[in-house]
Design brief:
The complex is a heterodimer of chains A (about 240) and B (about 400).
Chain A: H1 2-19, H2 92-96, H3 105-114, H4 133-146, H5 148-151, H6 160-163, H7 182-191, H8 205-220, H9 233-243
Helix pairs in contact in A: 3-7, 4-8, 7-8
Chain B: H1 2-38, H2 56-59, H3 64-72, H4 74-79, H5 83-91, H6 105-117, H7 141-174, H8 182-194, H9 196-219, H10 237-243, H11 248-251, H12 266-273, H13 285-302, E1 304-305, E2 310-311, H14 336-342, H15 347-351, H16 368-377, H17 401-404
Antiparallel strand pairs in B: 1-2
Classes of the chains: A mainly alpha (about 240), B mainly alpha (about 400).
């Protein structure tokens, strides 16, 4: 009987002591045999030197003197200048050749004049767009992930960030950007323009052409820009007397 | 001659009066238009992409004709070799202004009126915002009410004991027995505690409960459910993913492309924060200032000068050291793209209500039992088949050891 009491109390005591283990949620829980948890090859976003918040860190990758093979201790390093990604087998020609147009106004015009979508099919399909329906659908997904919060679901430049007054000045595809060519769009997605940043790190070249295919649908449904007055001269005269 | 002059002066006066009456209204319209059309490149009192525009109406007073032409078609004017246009183009770092051919005269008038009058004194449209406490456990009231409840229970117990004691005493007095003393109570208690059955029951109870608790606690070793570290920047998913409805994959673009979902590099932040240097909390200057300080940390990382609106040349970039929260151990392979693209799993299934989290924490346990549960229950949609609803991950070999452990 004595033994039974001792065992029961012992188990209860261990259980109680463990239940106090993970209360400070700003730190990670205890681990049993962390050697099995941590990767010897470098995991994404791990560090090559000891860091208290590091998970899956490979400290054995550090040099003998404790320093890291990388100057800042991170395994995520910037790719060397001129690196070309070689993914996307269907796009292999372009994947191995860097984007040829420089990030200048001249490059923008050149891209606009020379670049055209590799997705284009000879004649518009029965739904009225110039690429396959699959590309159009994929482009819609890309648009709804990366573009919709500024450019709006209808492409009118009234996304939720504009509606909430956080950002402004987003042009509409059916008005100001109605005449924008596919090549200029690709150039802008690659480098950014004005306040819009570069999307090269988020959207692959293939996805860029897909989303351009989707955006061109907005342009087709817009009002022609030619509807605006061609000569501003009479306008100026009406405003002039008031300020003179 | 005099008559003609009078008419001229009168016309002028009427026009001036009419214009100033109109201008308050047109300035408001101009402000709306300015936000919509111009504000991605221009501000009134600050250079952004293009120059500050507050002084423009005064600068071009008397030269409206040219200004209207410029606003409607700046690239055309530059290309035509107009001396003034070329000079302006070169003065502003050869940044070409887009053409706005569809602006009407009234709209340009409104824009100019707004540039002249400015924003006026800042008006607080909503009044101070009260921040609601969302976490019920952070509210001290709940602990007070719990304490009160315990107190009430203790009082009831005491009352019952007193009543029982009184009744027992009364009964014994009636039966002519001697009164119940404290010593009697002790003897009785000792008898109960020495009872073999009571002792066995108690030991069994403690043993079973203790073992259950021990197993439950031991199972959490190596699991980090609830892990909520303090990040280097007080980034709010509640604001970005909740209020502004920015898609998860906007920043975590890798979720559909690779094993890792990607922590966004700072250039992704800068896609918006080039233009957004702080969040306005009307009536709460401290919070506004805090948001500015937090966003300034991105600028410090990438070397962005918000006043000059450009990157500092030759700046040594410093990575933002975000603290990783979710991790599957090395011996279990997890791939985001597989689950997001092929499986069509929502981010929230594993990461919880991220769009409501001010600070992100690990929502699910990410243990093996949790993985297996989902693989047993999750239905898989097969492309080109409608009646595939009954197929689970398990049916496709999703429980094989080597599916994850290799």
């Amino acid at each position: 009987m004595r033994k039974g009491i001792t065992y029961a109390l012992g188990i209860a005591a261990i259980a109680l002591s463990l239940s106090g283990c993970y209360t400070d949620k700003s730190k990670r829980n205890i681990e049993y045999a962390p050697n099995m948890y941590n990767s010897l090859p470098l995991e994404p976003y791990s560090q090559t030197v000891f860091h208290e918040t590091n998970i899956g860190g490979n400290y054995e990758g550090a040099k003998l003197d404790g320093t890291s093979p990388f100057a800042n201790g991170l395994n995520a390093q910037k790719a060397p200048e001129g690196t070309v990604p070689r993914a996307e087998s269907w796009y292999i020609q372009e994947a191995f050749s860097p984007y040829a147009y420089p990030n200048t106004p001249e490059g923008y015009e050149m891209a606009g004049a020379e670049l055209s979508s590799p997705l284009n099919i000879p004649a518009a399909n029965d739904k009225g767009y110039n690429c396959t329906e699959e590309s159009f659908k994929k482009g819609k997904l890309v648009y709804e992930t990366y573009c919709v919060m500024c450019h709006g679901a209808e492409g009118k430049g009234n996304g939720i960030l504009v509606q909430k007054g956080v950002l402004g000045g987003v042009p509409s595809y059916s008005e100001q950007l109605r005449e924008l060519s596919a090549g200029k769009m690709f150039h802008t997605l690659t480098y950014g323009k004005n306040t819009m940043g570069s999307y090269a790190s988020q959207i692959t070249p293939a996805q860029r052409w897909q989303v351009i295919c989707y955006i061109q649908k907005f342009q087709e449904s817009g009002v022609p820009a030619a509807a605006a007055p061609a000569t501003p001269a009479p306008a100026a005269t009406t405003a002039a007397p008031a300020t003179k | 001659m005099e008559g003609k002059g009078l008419v001229r002066i009168l016309t002028f006066c009427i026009l001036v009066a009419g214009f100033s009456a109109l201008s308050a209204q047109t300035a408001a319209e101009g402000k709306a238009l300015f936000k919509q059309q111009c504000s991605s490149c221009h501000a009134l009192n600050k250079k952004i992409i293009g120059p500050a525009l507050a002084g423009v109406p005064a600068k071009y007073a008397g030269d409206e004709e040219w200004l209207y032409k410029w606003i409607r078609n700046a690239p055309g004017l530059i290309a035509s070799g107009d001396a003034k246009a070329v000079k302006l183009y070169e003065e502003n770092g050869k940044q070409q202004m887009s053409a706005f051919p569809s602006l009407t005269d009234a709209q340009i008038q409104g824009l100019l009126a707004y540039m002249k009058e400015g924003d006026g004194p800042a008006v607080d449209p909503k009044g101070p915002i009260t921040t609601a406490v969302t976490d019920p456990l952070a509210d001290p009231a709940i602990y007070y009410s719990l304490l009160g409840l315990v107190g009430v229970l203790a009082l009831i117990t005491l009352l019952l004991v007193v009543i029982t004691a009184t009744l027992v005493t009364a009964v014994r007095a009636k039966e002519q027995k001697e009164a119940f003393t404290f010593a009697d109570v002790l003897t009785k208690t000792r008898e109960i505690l020495r009872n073999k059955f009571v002792i066995t029951a108690a030991v069994c109870f403690i043993f079973v409960m203790g073992t259950a608790k021990l197993i439950a606690e031991a199972r959490t070793i190596g699991l980090h459910q609830g892990y909520m570290p303090t990040q280097p920047i007080a980034y709010s998913h509640k604001l970005h993913a909740g209020e502004y409805q920015i898609a998860c994959q906007y920043c975590h673009a890798g979720a559909s492309k690779s094993k890792s979902a990607w922590i966004p590099s700072a250039n992704v932040c800068m896609n918006c924060h080039k233009a957004i240097a702080q969040k306005e909390y009307p009536g709460d200057a401290a919070r506004t200032a805090q948001s500015k300080a937090e966003i300034a940390k991105i600028y410090a990382a990438v070397g962005w000068d918000p006043d000059a609106f450009q990157y500092i040349a030759g700046y040594e970039e410093k990575p933002i050291e975000w603290i990783r929260i979710h991790n599957t151990p090395d011996h279990a392979y997890f791939n985001h793209a597989q689950h997001v693209v092929v499986g069509g799993i929502e981010c929230q299934t594993c990461h919880g209500p991220i769009q409501e989290m001010e600070v992100v924490y690990q929502y699910t346990e990410l243990g093996m039992g949790w993985c297996i549960n989902c693989h047993r229950n999750q239905k898989v949609k097969v492309l080109g088949q409608d009646n595939s609803d009954d197929l689970t991950v398990e049916d496709m070999g999703g429980l094989n050891c080597a599916r994850c452990h290799y």
